[in-house]
Structure formats: structure tokens, C-alpha cells
């Protein structure tokens, strides 16, 4: 078994930088019109905020450690494959429809708001008092941050104008489902989590699904961070 050489957080951050490099190369290779300009603005600004948020909160995103082959795999997947919608956007010669443009920006905005808002709320709450955060963003879905991420990548796929871009959304969904499964397994040992799980959907928000709004429930902070 190969020895870990770095953290998963470092691997993902390297991958994000690779994505930016791939995207910023595209304007030198293809024609640039409205679709391409907006796509570049959305995707690059997302990655800039992704890195800036870590610098502000100074918290690791992941607890795992990666070996050299795992770093290569993460960079290839998150760094290169995730740039696929950008390449498809730049190779799409068709003018972007105004409705598609508006829908893409809206998906990106709400996806980013849900993802970042939920992460910031959880981080602040755990610093103040170790507990299971179930109010505000986390009353909408047990994995509202992952749902926001899916909306954001759906915006990229829609804006690219290619069905192939939705394969990246499926990859993001698969990774999210795996991390959600790990978090469920970790938190299932706490009796209070059962009530929260029964009242709030696992991923897609359904505001009228719950019969009541659960209160914040106590659980050790070490478990709350796993897979979230």
C-alpha cells in the first residue's frame, strides 16, 4: 500500500488550479462570444471563491490523505474532466439563447448561495458550539451544500449547450452520494440524528415534506465534520 504524501484538500486545490489553467487556455484556441465569456466568468469566479473561502476560514475540506496515484487521479478527474463543459462551450458555434443564459446564471447564483451559505453556517455554528446543525440552510436538506454544488454544475452544463456536459453533473452526483453515504453512516450512531433524518430530505429540498422544523440537536463535532 502506497504511503500518503498530502491531504485530499491539497489534491483538490491543485485540481482546481489545473481547471483554471485549462479554461484560460481556451480563449486562445477558439472564438469568444457571449456564451464563452459568461461561462469563463462563472466557472473561474467559482474556483476563485472556492480557494478564497478556505483561506478565510482556514479549515480543511477533507480529512483523507492521498498517495501519489490518488493525487494524480483527483487532478485528472476534478482538474481536467470538470473542465469538459468549458471546452464544449468554447467549441459550440451556436449563439446562446437568452433564456438559456438567464437560466444558467440563476442556477449558478442559487447553487453558489446554497453551497457557500450552508458551509459558512455550519462552520460558524461548530466553532460556537459543537452540535448537529439542523436550522436555516440545513432545515431544507441534510446535504444542502451538495445540492447547491449540483445546481452550479448544472449551470455549467446548460450554458455549454452540449448534452455531454451533463456527464460531469452525473460524476459530481456520484461523488456527492458517496460522501453522503459516509456521513450518514457516521452520524447514524447518534439517536437524535434519526429524528432529523426522518424530518428532512437527504438531498433535494422539499419544504412541505416535514411536519415540523427540527431544533438543533447535539452530537460530537468530530462526527459532524465527516463527509460533509
**What is the H/E order?**
EHHEHHHHHHH
Residue windows where pLDDT falls under 50 for at least 5 positions: 214-228
Number of strands: 2
Kindly provide the radius of gyration, computed on alpha-carbon positions and rounded to a whole number of angstroms. Answer: 19 Å
- The pLDDT mean sits at 89
Fraction in helix: 55-70%
Report strand %: under 5%
Q: Label the overall shape.
A: globular
H/I helix tally: 9
The total number of structural domains is 1
- Report the biggest beta sheet as strand number plus sense, adding barrel if it closes: 2 strands, antiparallel
Going across the biggest sheet, name each strand in turn. 1-2
Category from helices, strands and their pairing: mainly alpha
* Terminal Cα span: 27 Å
Question: How would you sum up this structure in a few lines?
Answer:
The chain has 228 residues and is mainly α. The protein contains nine helices and two strands; from the N terminus they run βααβααααααα.
